[in-house]
Amino acid sequence: MSSFLDQVAQFLLSQPLPLHRQTVILPSRRAGIFLQKALESQLDKPSLAPRFISIEDLIFELTGLEAVSRPELYFRLFECLRNSVRPDLKFEEFNRWGRALLQDFNEIDRYLIEPNQIFTYLGDLKRIEQWNLEPGEHTRMLDDYLKFWPALAEVYQELKQSLLAEGKAWQGLAYRAFAEKVQHETKAIAEEYEQFFFIGFNALNNAEEKALLQLYDAGLAQFFWDVDRYYFEDPEQEAGHFLRNSPLVKRLQKHDAFYGLHDELAHGTRKVESIAVAGSNLQSIIASNLLSEQSEEDLAQTAMVLSDEALLPAFLNSIHPNFPSLNLSMGLGLQHSPLAGFFEILLDFPLEAERNAKKTKDGWARYHFKRWEALLNHPITHKIAGSSAYKLQEIRTEMHRKNALYPSFSELGLEQLIEPLSADFFKVDQGIGEQYQRLAHFCEASLSVLVDQSSLQEGLFAFYQLFKQSADTLNRFPYLESFEQSLQFYRELLPDLGIDLRGEPLQGMQVMGWLETRCLDFKQIVVLSLNEGILPKGRSESSLLPFDVKRKFGLPTYLEKDAVFAYHFYRLMQRAQSIYLLHSTSASGIGVVEPSRFVRQLELEWPQKNARLLFKNQIATARSQEAKSNEQVAKSPALLQRLEEIALRGFSPSSLYLYLKDPLQFYYEKVLGLKPDDSLMEELDLPAQGNVLHEFLEYGFSLPDPENPEERIPHSPDPEGSFFKQKLPELKAQLKDLMLKHVPGLPLEQGPNLLHLESMSFMLRNFLKFESARLKKLGSSWKVLATEKGLEGRISLASGRQINLIGNADRIDQEGECIHIIDYKSGAKSKYDYSISSLDMEAFIKKPQAIQLPMYALMYWQQNPQLEIQASVLSLRKLSDNPFSMKMEKSAVLNSENQEAIVTVLQAIFEEMFNPDIPFQSRA
């Protein structure tokens, strides 16, 4: 395959001007490296290389201007707006549209539009929109709004002059200056540069068109394009839009100097596969699998193109450790890196202090525990803590033990653990510039701590530069009014932040974004995230200028931007032989689940031009949603030994409920001991509410033991006596005490916890009234035998294995000759939930909650076999059914017959549980 740059090398070598006197301008710096290699392969003797330079570097070099930083430009625009148009303009309002205005200024300059004309025209349009208002509808605010648009030309001029006076410019302004300099100083340029060669360009803006035409007419420039007749000569193909309409191209065609036109797309055997993938990140795995068995030679001629560059970390993680060398020409954006998240967490601290203003007596700000947990759990914090990282978990554990909802930096004792971060960062009184200065200091200090982690050091250095530059800018332009704006400012800076990951550029597979593909050719192409809305982006513009205004003045709209990427797409296909185009079928957003229209165009149109093209659609399925339920854990000898240990200690009704419901969850929680999230509690959750209610009722039906006040003994209160009457007035106060006992520091004066307190008070008040009336009917035949009664039992399996059972019954009552094992339920339970039509394991799998009552009854019956026993539920919420006893094959009373049936059910459950051939897995 003769690549485009091979042809360019041949073109440059054919020139009468020696290579070392040529200035070669390329769309990217990377293209220069590959062009140098192409030249070396065609030279038969050593030679000095041409000078390679990017178009933007050339423009700033020729004009002598310095590129102004984004933060400085942003604040200077705000300053100009306040000086010229809106003295009362708040930064918060400006922040909503300031970047869009800068982008418009940039495009106005790149396309050489007269600012006064376009903004006056825009102001006239706004006035026309309000032409039919009644006299009374004209307000000062409306007048200010209508004056704003034409005044933007004045803002532009003030910003432009202030920057040029310091030798600075934004990109578009430098392009305008470039066009003007070439027009007026062509002779001076000719004295410094003998010949320019512009290689592989496509979408020239008006400033470039004007300057390059002038250079061409002066004999200072030649051009070599990479354009296929397929899209250049077809007016319906957007990829050829810019080249077809370029005045420069038309001039070159007229002079027979339009080099680089070809028909590569119509020739050669091509294989194209469009692959639909269920998930964005899964594309990386599919792509890695496609490439894993290929030779190093094939991979050296392969490009992996990421349409969504945020996929880079996922792709790198999916690559096999033994994968041959690859080269990242796109660098690594830090916007989604752990460091970016770490600094966002830190910037959240002063924001919270600004909003909540909680602080200790000595001036330390108090922060919500979730803020501290995010910091304590972050991998960057652990790296900085080094060998003391284990103390972070100790601090977290202590915070949980105390349920410290708003601890301070000093109370947690973090001074030594994250020493590079100044403790003053966590105090209340700090300015925004000071905040960024401290973060810069943190990055600088951390570089010496993390000496053995080069990639992390590179990222830290990038953030050091960002924070240092931002601190200087904020000190010079102190316009940020709050820490919320500070956080927004930080987020605005992130997209431009990255580190260069380039290795040896000429070896291995190339991983790149679309802009890095310019001028380069590969035999094999793999493209990820080729979804509509990602490539092309479509109507995702940041601009204050309406579409029609842009069209009138010749400014690019989303249509032209789509055409730019259409060219990049088709150009990359021109010399490729194997092409894999992956798109996600489960991306978020409207339309982006569809493959890019570029893919559909290839499928429908390219075969008409090339008969040797094979196009195939495929679906790459991920592990299905049922994969979790298909997860299995085999029962190893060690795991079975763990079950034996639990059997010795005893299985509780709740553990069997969990096993019947989901054996896999039982394995994680009961066998491995992995507990659900144990984060601090700022709102009383349902389990904690249940514990509070149970303890309240335990105290209600028991008294302190006179012989041992720390223990309690059963108490049968008189339904008409003091217990039920006295409990009602003091109920809420007791609930408060219990809530704080279970969750120390819980805020009860407002918010959801106050609602929970009122809800539980209402529930208990109604329950106590109901229970008083019910027990009054029972009279003296009723008494309380026990509360929170510990029960034990045992069953034997056919193998001879002994299984111990344990549990706590909420309350045990006696009504006449019948014993009632009572289980309190704070939820709305019904009789149906606890009715079992047949005493077998399958019935309990369908209603796993029903296993608890017969287990309580069985354990009590084994200790008291002569008694008549019923297991009953008392619902605190659904009083109409209270109490309801569990029906076991139509019988509510545990007797010798159904007792044996319950034992048989439990034996079946445990036989399955201990069977080494039946893995733990979720039930279907």
UniProtKB/TrEMBL annotation:
The protein's superkingdom reads Bacteria
Q: Where is the PD-(D/E)XK endonuclease-like domain?
A: 651-921
UniProt xrefs under InterPro entries: P-loop_NTPase, PDDEXK-like_dom_sf, PDDEXK_AddAB-type
Which protein is depicted? PD-(D/E)XK nuclease family protein
